[in-house]
Automatic annotation (TrEMBL):
<keyword id="KW-1133">Transmembrane helix</keyword>
<dbReference type="InterPro" id="IPR007245">
    <property type="entry name" value="PIG-T"/>
</dbReference>
<dbReference type="GO" id="GO:0042765">
    <property type="term" value="C:GPI-anchor transamidase complex"/>
</dbReference>
<feature type="transmembrane region" description="Helical">
    <location>
        <begin position="281"/>
        <end position="299"/>
    </location>
</feature>
<keyword id="KW-0812">Transmembrane</keyword>
<dbReference type="GO" id="GO:0016255">
    <property type="term" value="P:attachment of GPI anchor to protein"/>
</dbReference>
<feature type="transmembrane region" description="Helical">
    <location>
        <begin position="205"/>
        <end position="226"/>
    </location>
</feature>
<protein>
    <recommendedName>
        <fullName>GPI transamidase component PIG-T</fullName>
    </recommendedName>
</protein>
<dbReference type="Pfam" id="PF04113">
    <property type="entry name" value="Gpi16"/>
</dbReference>
<keyword id="KW-0472">Membrane</keyword>
Amino acid sequence: MNVGITWKLPLTWSCAKPPFYANRFLMGSGYERGSIAISLQSSHSHEWHLDQFNGCKVEAVVFQVVPWYVKVYYHTLKIFIDGKPQIVSDVVENMRISPSEDKVSPGMLELMLRFPCNMQSASLVLDFDKGFLHIDEYPPDANQGFDISSALISFPNFYSNRTYLIDDSLTQSPLLLEFQEENIVQSYTEVLLVPLTTPDFSMPYNVITFTCTVLALYFGSLLNVLRRRVGEEERLLKCQVEKTALLPLLLSRLVSKFKRQNRELSQSSSPSSSPSRGHKLILKAILVAVAAIVYFYLLNDE
């Protein structure tokens, strides 16, 4: 999409080039702490303005707002000019600070700085700690990071304005008069992307399953101990042993009875009737043995 504005009145636009190019970036690693650095590089556009500055100084106003979860330590402010550390009071003419309040308001820092005219580069460094958010406060793309809005750097001695070439009644309108006023040259830095500690969003499910498993094991063992009767296991084992020993006892009694009857029959019966009676006794013994085996298996199934 190509969007443009066309002025019906011819005008001239004059804007002084800012004396410094501003950049902002993060330093440090990890999810606990870091540093915010603002770098100023000379654009060599203020050399012809040197006679306008008091004591050959270039003024710059730095204004930045940081969210509450970026806990900036303002007392750690360090200033470097051309790579050399400077005393803060020698460079900072005025400072206004509004500390952040957790989950209520962001922090604000405004500095009025005076740099030497022959300065080539300057750096401002502030240390900060990364806060912790509640799990409900994270956006859907929490792993991407959190944005810190751009810092605004103003140069009070550099102005921009518009001038209309035609003296017409239209130029007397309040809106056009507002456009003709001089405005301070301002520069915006980059937006910072701060990575914060991101929780495992599946952790609530893991905690619930782990807790339920522990409770199930605990109450299962507790109910088992409470419902167990004293001596129940010994009684069941004794019954099982008695059922197992019942079949040999029945078989031994059956064999002894069969031998006794066989002797009695052999002594008292005649030779003609002894074979038939012997077969009957054998059949009875087999039936009793089968009944004992069936009874034994039925007891084991129970």
